[in-house]
Fold Beta-galactosidase.
Amino acid sequence: MVATSNNVLALGVCDYPEHVPASEWKNHAEQQKTLGLQYVRLAEFSWAKIEPSDGIYDWQWLDDAIATYVAQGLKIVMCTPTATPPAWLIQKYPEILAVDAQGQTMKFGSRRHYDHASDIYRQECKRITTLMAQRYGQHADVIGWQTDNELGHEGTAVSYGGASAERFPKWLETRYETLEALNEAWGCAFWSQDYSQWQQICPPNLTAVRQPNPSQALDYQRFCSDMIEEFQQVQIDVLRALSPNRFLTHNFVIFAQEFDLYKVAKNLDFVAWDSYPIGMLEFFATWESEQTKSEFARTGHPDLVSFNHDLYRGIKGGKDFWIMEQQCGHANWAQYNPLPAKGAVQLWTAQAWAHGASSVTYFRWRASHMAQEIMHSGLLQQDGRADRGYQEVKDFDTSQFVLEKVNARVALLHDYNSLWAYNLQPHNKDLNYWHQFMMFYSALRELGVDVDIIHPEQLADKEYALVVAPALTVVTPEIASYLTQCAKNCPIIFGPRTAFRNDSGRVADKGQFQLIEDLVGIKLANFDSLRPTLSQSVEQTETSTEFSAKLWCESYELTGANATHTYLNGPMAGVAAVTNKGNVSVIGALSGSLIKSILKAALGEVGIETFTLPKGMRLSRRGDITLVLNFNLHDVEWEGTTYPGVSFSTLN
Ligand code: GAL
């Protein structure tokens, strides 16, 4: 079902025929064909063009545009246009608008201004999706569908009023059945928060002082995630019925964290995501230096990009994914939007393939003359001349990029309950879930190791040589049993805050590790949230090697494990910082070099080769090919070979 006819990487482009005169379409389609593109993604923001007013339709322009692409042999990826409900629809049903955390109702004039819980909006989406699917669902050249566009992105996953506020108490009643159970789960004894009627419960915004109850906020996040899942399912059901044998996918975003991707992607055929490597540098905001951001300002940082590839490969258990929007020039939405370096578009395309992409679609064909994205680039400039990315795409030879498996032997465990619970109470201004996770991910990538990112449940289906759980702070009895089973024959390394909370976000009666204490053989002694200027020295007992930890340190009391590292100074001096019991180690101190040294030793023990790679240089393997990717602007000498700046090559 994936549109790659000859088992090699396929290329496509996002195009907006509705933005240019119809007289340009033929020329555009001919150029797209010349570039070697195989398909065009269409129509994700086209509702008002298709239905300019209530019940009045204009399909002709889209019929003609499709015919123009098809005449050149291009295939079509069609989108449902539900990310942009038109002005007439908002005027008719203002209640579908979302409400922000300040209690303000969103206004019309941008996109994704709807509340996913709204039944009225779901019905409207069903109606327009049905009409589109009836018209194009069996078109011979429509190969698949994208639902909506970047669900929940830019803070639109959550609405704090309207339909969401109405449905939340009902959702809670289904989850907890009794108010006693809810009051207990949320710890409502604290600050007299007990509820005596379901209807008293509100979304967790505008609470008077400080933060809302974190367990309530955690459930609200889950509720909003479920609303998105249901919202999309309405479209999936229509498309499955009316457009059989076409793929269904969705274009998710960089470091998606607004909803549970494992659930939202469950009924899609494969996942796609939108890759903007340069804008992605903003995700380093709190933890990387301006120096690093400058060094990678024109290529993006290899680990930020590859992390998202690995995340999306793992969402459906190792299936190939698509890049539905690939940056191919400057973007417009980041704080700074430098031009990509020459060669970057090819480098990103090759990297996507190496991490499991079967298709890369460039965003967008021709730069927009109008509205919010005037400052964004395309493969063509606004006046129609080829822009910098055009030639790179033309010169990119896909024939060597065969769609083999990515066979990683190391898994990183990731889940959304841990992400949400961590980020609701980070307890240190400079820390968040991704930051901690990336310290472990980057250490592995710096060692030249390929990794899968998976949900702990997936441990039941696949065996690994090493499992790492960087920030698994919510551990349920089910997760505890997957971990226990896995540790029988595979080493596991945990990061700080492991098993600190249960499913409702509370700490268990017996504190951290309660559900896995036999496994780890420790209890928490103390945790320590450090100011940026503070650090803790950690010593490896056996070799007396010292490491410097920052931001977060935990110390442990031993109940069966050994201490391999202890704190040398500060309030936790002399207490365990890293422990080991059989196959299981726990790292309590955040230090990049400490994490790397422990991972390196563990990889050595399970026979996985590690490398010392120069900064900005990475290895990635797919099938029998190992790519060397150089994200630096300058040439790099490594193991007797010179690798040109901004390049990829095959390691012999
Ligand atoms: C994506 C979005 C596109 C466009 C693009 C600009 O997030 O899906 O519609 O806005 O960003 O970079």
